[in-house]
Model the fold of this input.
Amino acid sequence: MKRIILNETSYFGAGCRSVIAEEVARRGFRKAFFVTDKDLIKFGVADKITQVLNAASIPFELFSDVKANPTIANVQHGVEAYKKSGADFIIALGGGSSIDTAKGIGIVVNNPEFADVKSLEGVADTKHKAVPTFALPTTAGTAAEVTINYVIIDEDAKKKMVCVDPNDIPAVAIIDPELMYSMPKGLTAATGMDALTHAIESYITPGAWAMSDMFEIKAIEMIAQNLKNAVDNGNDTLARDNMAQAQYIAGMGFSNVGLGIVHSMAHPLGAFYDTPHGVANALLLPYVMEYNADSPAAPKYKDIAGAMGVDIEGMNTEEGVKAAIEAVKKLSESINIPQKLSEIGVKEEDIHDLAVAAYGDVCTGGNPRPTSVEDIEAIYRKAYR
Ligand SMILES: NC(=O)c1ccc[n+]([C@@H]2O[C@H](COP(=O)([O-])OP(=O)(O)OC[C@H]3O[C@@H](n4cnc5c(N)ncnc54)[C@H](O)[C@@H]3O)[C@@H](O)[C@H]2O)c1
Ligand SMILES: [Fe+2]
Done:
């Protein structure tokens, strides 16, 4: 049996955030709980939403206690603030961090038995849908607006918890590339590589099938064609628009079929060093692709190379594997992604503990090659220097 879960309604295109007013009227909501983070207020991105709310006389309560790589405390403070706010729906504006925090808040408000947040890790058995949420991504990466996942740090356990729960899916996704124009180059590059990692990992996961493959191949093609342009020229509106769509399309697939150990290995880097999620994935992706080439997924590498623009005519599987890894490395280097863990503050003496944490991550089950702590440790070491 296959299952597909997508959000109810999605809008795409420059300026489409104006639809918030119509959607609020149509659904009869009265007051918004507006979740975002402090940098988005500073860069004027939050203003683009408050303008829409003010113009339509929609009252809101602002909540911005969200850090990049959000924590259990961020969620719990949000739950308290929501309860006091008198709001009846959530607007989540941001990258994965703000949207994931909003998902956690919306779940705990309607499922108070999970108030510790820790018990939501993995596949959580919540009974009620989250508070209805409008999600507006400001990065072209995580696709949190269309996924059934959210990722929260348990600081005590030094762990990034992946929470999988169809009840968390936003009701409305509003993918307005104008909200992404202010992303600096490094963030555009890292978040775009996160989207590419989603597409590649879920293209080769054992649960992949015709429908998820369709999403992921298209996403890989669009990212390969547009990411460098979006990084080099942040005002390239076509590249921004295509990246906004591509990351969503990748999300439609990976949310339903899962990921692999690039994500398992990236999560502990976030928990230990606060490494930006996209940077961690981007750096690890080619190393893990090399490792996973020794799996039944190998023949699919050729398709990845083809989607990335390589002429794959007449290539055998081995050549396809090489071509796909080279294409990913070339794109990553061309947008200045760091290539070694030693360059981004990882400590060599932590590698064993990182490997233990990665092996225990929810995403490990989706890897095409059965793995072990030892194998993961060896990949970290290879990527270290
Ligand atoms: N829910 C999911 O399915 C899913 C998938 C992948 C990753 N994640 C999680 O999402 C988080 C990462 O999210 P992210 O990579 O989108 O980044 P982020 O939300 O952590 O944001 C990083 C920084 O960029 C800033 N920023 C965001 N948009 C900006 C813009 N338009 N202009 C200027 N600055 C901007 C933010 O304010 C923040 O300071 C991680 O915790 C990761 O584990 C979730
Ligand atoms: Fe990701």
